[in-house]
Amino acid sequence: MNLDLQGIFDALLEGVVVLDDADRIEFLNTEAARLLGAPAELSPSERLSEALGQDHPICGIVERVRRSGRTSIHDEVEFPQRLATPIPVDVSASILGDRNDGAIAIIVRDRSAARSLREEISERERQESYGHIAAGIAHEVKNPLGGIRGAAELLQLSAKDDRSRKTAALIVGEVDRISGLVDELMIFARGDALELERVNVHRPLDALLDLLALESGYGSIEIERLYDPSLPELEADQARLQQVFLNLARNAMQAMEESGGKLTLSTRMTLENRLVGPDGRAQPTIEIVIRDEGPGIPDAIRHRLATPFFTTKRKGTGLGLAVARHWIRRHGGRLNIESIEGEGTRVIVDLPLQPLAPPELDRTPGTLTQTGNQESPT
Q1: What are the φ and ψ backbone dihedral angles of 129, each rounded to 5 degrees?
Q2: How far is CA 83 from the centre of its chain?
Q3: Per-residue pLDDT at 106
Q4: Is the pTM of this model over 0.90?
Q5: Residue 258 sits in which domain range?
Q6: 201 within 8 A of 234, measured Cβ to Cβ
């Protein structure tokens, strides 16, 4: 029986690389080439360091294996990608034969799905904790605020000079502002119902651009639409989606307010990393991407972006992104942020054609909650 070994290895979920005693590439399969970010013209007999660059993390792993003569296993090594964010990859490298002149076999496995799953679970737990905090704040703050506002109104009515009236009016205004923030935070606790209808996702996107066109300060920003005209309608709350997209697009525009640039809105159907319904089956998913050419987001603060009241803006409340995540999750969707400092930011929203119940925090071994090129056990 003749076997196509290359075809068999290309069908594997893991990437496989074999180096000879001089670290020349003797064999690699399709998945390995993808994860390594190897150029299409990469050919066997090329040295690994020449093909990928001496700074690529896998070259350092190979060097350590050569020195020690022992198998080296690493979890979630960040593999750089051209024009994309790095991919977390599990790496196992072993010498075949004599430690001084043997070949090296390298197994690599994409951990992007598993990392996304962990982040999704963590985000869901944070959202639930925000709900508890919001309920506590409402109980402890709303009633005293009402008393303060009433007292300030009485002071305003009985004030005998302009300064006293302005001071009382300032108190009333600040109480209303705080009360509004509490009401926004209560979104996480109330669980307001979605008003579902058939929605062409391009309508709320175009509507937000009309709204932004009325705001000042964005004259130097170019807007590009890359819409897929064949997208089917989805079942969604159009008002909530418009609120989400407006928050995200406004953030992108504000990031380019000083330097200018291009805001790109794109839509497509996704085949990779699709959402999974309650029956465990992959669901048709629409992807909406909002991309800016701003300064990007520093790694040190990226994980805090969806925390209520955390903001880098002078006048921001820090609730926009947290609320956006909340409503996308209520639709059974997913919101991810990819950013390279100095090169801009991509906000990616994945929405099912029909809202999915947010998955439970099921940590049963082997449970899958999303699909893609790789399985993602919890």
Answers
A1: -70, -35
A2: 17
A3: 92
A4: no
A5: 194-352
A6: yes
